[in-house]
From TrEMBL:
<feature type="transmembrane region" description="Helical">
    <location>
        <begin position="150"/>
        <end position="171"/>
    </location>
</feature>
<keyword id="KW-0472">Membrane</keyword>
<dbReference type="InterPro" id="IPR011701">
    <property type="entry name" value="MFS"/>
</dbReference>
<feature type="transmembrane region" description="Helical">
    <location>
        <begin position="109"/>
        <end position="130"/>
    </location>
</feature>
<dbReference type="GO" id="GO:0022857">
    <property type="term" value="F:transmembrane transporter activity"/>
</dbReference>
<dbReference type="Pfam" id="PF07690">
    <property type="entry name" value="MFS_1"/>
</dbReference>
<feature type="transmembrane region" description="Helical">
    <location>
        <begin position="326"/>
        <end position="348"/>
    </location>
</feature>
<feature type="transmembrane region" description="Helical">
    <location>
        <begin position="395"/>
        <end position="414"/>
    </location>
</feature>
<dbReference type="InterPro" id="IPR036259">
    <property type="entry name" value="MFS_trans_sf"/>
</dbReference>
<dbReference type="InterPro" id="IPR005829">
    <property type="entry name" value="Sugar_transporter_CS"/>
</dbReference>
<dbReference type="InterPro" id="IPR050171">
    <property type="entry name" value="MFS_Transporters"/>
</dbReference>
<feature type="transmembrane region" description="Helical">
    <location>
        <begin position="177"/>
        <end position="195"/>
    </location>
</feature>
<feature type="transmembrane region" description="Helical">
    <location>
        <begin position="369"/>
        <end position="389"/>
    </location>
</feature>
<feature type="transmembrane region" description="Helical">
    <location>
        <begin position="86"/>
        <end position="103"/>
    </location>
</feature>
<keyword id="KW-0813">Transport</keyword>
<protein>
    <submittedName>
        <fullName>MFS transporter</fullName>
    </submittedName>
</protein>
<keyword id="KW-0812">Transmembrane</keyword>
Length: 434
């Protein structure tokens, strides 16, 4: 086992207490987002009487644009100031969000709360991703990301289901948002007093970093400027740029599901409780599925799992557009969640495979900038198409874009996960610690 100092080690097992704590913290991150999933679209229609889909989706646009930008800064600040201060700052920003949603006298207050939510999610979720990659080391990156994303999205799903129940029995406000307030208080305590800094683990891995045998990453040396990291992750490096566009399209269809699916279901006459089940089923399968797909990508590789996941999502969205019953929509939600589970942790593991430890946090930030920019693009695109041609047309457009994205991954991305014959670069002791 490689050490720096007396107790610094790489591997999930070697850092199990801190790794598990960060899994719990990311569950709370997902829960804060989940408090809005079922309730906010209904609040827009029933309380604020919004009729235009584009205007209704302003809250998704505000959230997505803010989160995307904050992701970038989370990566650079994590390298500059450390991971823990950025995580704690993200939770401090979250304090007013439930209060604003409970007392909002106008839709503008909801949009403002979602600006803060975007900052919160960008700082906290990005940082927990970076910290888990730091701790896990290279051997079990897919498993680490599967656990991280599973925790966040399973908690999102459970919270969406719980808030749907609370809204059905106690009204849209304040009961559902009190649950979110409790998450913020708990997360602040854990992040402030129990979570430990992980930046030195990345520095340890950098001292042991081994280049690919095929020479593909020889130009991606340790000393890259922020501009170079942005360029490689966005455009120039085939795997990084393919991952960035796939992440953006993935969250584009998630923004559609968040903003318009509850309205589509309500228009078909479904009850609030049934809408809550559908709103929860998709992220539940997505969340729990990552417990399988994350480690699976460590064994099978990244590229084909991502391609299959994008095409599965496209087929599920087509089924949503074709259906008009609760049963068929539930099937579509399950397949949409399964496709997203194939993609989500695997894309993050791809970034970790390619990016050098010295600039990996910044690459994660750039990737997540593009990925969560999909919320904003999806909100605008889906809103405009829905206003012009209806809800189902918006779903068809997003389904087509998702299929095209899967084809781009198939053509442009190469396999980034180390092949079995390269396992000699991972010491037996580090393997056992993971």
């Amino acid at each position: 086992m490689t050490r720096v100092g007396a107790d610094l080690r790489l591997g999930i097992r070697a850092n199990l207490a801190q790794f598990s704590l960060l899994v719990a913290v990311n569950a709370l991150v997902g829960g804060v987002l989940g408090q809005e999933r079922t309730v906010l679209p209904l609040l827009a229609e029933q309380t604020f009487h919004l009729t235009g889909y584009t205007f209704l989706l302003t809250y998704v646009l505000a959230f997505g644009a803010t989160k995307a930008a904050t992701n970038y800064f989370a990566g650079t600040w994590s390298d500059r100031f450390g991971r823990k201060p950025v995580l704690l700052a993200g939770w401090l920003v979250a304090i007013p969000i439930p209060v604003m949603l409970i007392w909002a006298p106008s839709w503008g207050w909801v949009v403002a709360a979602n600006v803060l939510l975007g900052i919160n999610q960008g700082l906290t979720w990005s940082t927990t991703v970076i910290m888990k990659i730091d701790l896990a080391g290279p051997a079990r990156r897919g498993l680490a990301m599967g656990l991280n994303e599973a925790a966040g999205y399973t908690a999102l799903a459970v919270t969406a289901l719980a808030t749907g129940y609370l809204a059905a029995h106690y009204g849209l406000r304040p009961a559902p948002f009190l649950l979110g307030a409790s998450y913020v208080v708990l997360a602040l305590g854990l992040s402030g007093f129990v979570v430990r800094e992980t930046r030195e683990h990345a520095r340890l891995e950098a001292t042991r970093h081994t280049a690919r045998g095929d020479g593909r990453h020889d130009h991606l040396h340790a000393e890259l400027t922020n501009r170079q990291v942005f360029g490689h992750t966005s455009l120039h490096e085939p795997a990084l740029s393919a991952a960035s566009q796939a992440g953006m399209v993935n969250n584009l269809n998630d923004g559609l599901a968040w903003g318009l699916f509850p309205i589509l279901f309500a228009a078909a006459g479904l009850s609030v409780s049934h809408i809550g089940i559908l709103a929860a089923a998709y992220p539940a399968v997505w969340g729990l599925g990552q417990l399988v797909t994350g480690p699976l990508s460590d064994h099978w590789g990244r590229k084909h799992l991502i391609t299959a996941g994008m095409l599965t999502q496209a087929a599920a969205l087509a089924l949503v557009a074709l259906s008009d019953t609760f049963a068929l929509w539930l099937v579509a939600a399950v397949f949409l969640g399964a496709g997203t589970a194939m993609v989500y942790p695997t894309l993050l593991a791809t970034i970790g495979d390619v990016a050098h430890p010295a600039w990996r946090a910044r690459a994660v930030g750039v990737y997540r900038l593009w990925r969560d920019g999909g919320f904003a693009v999806g909100a605008v695109l889906a809103g405009i198409v829905a206003d012009l041609w209806g809800l189902r047309a918006a779903v068809w457009v997003v389904a087509a874009l998702t299929a095209v994205s899967g084809v781009i991954v198939a053509v442009r991305m190469y396999e980034t996960h180390p092949k079995p014959d390269r396992s000699k670069h991972i010491t037996a002791s580090e393997e056992s610690a993971s």
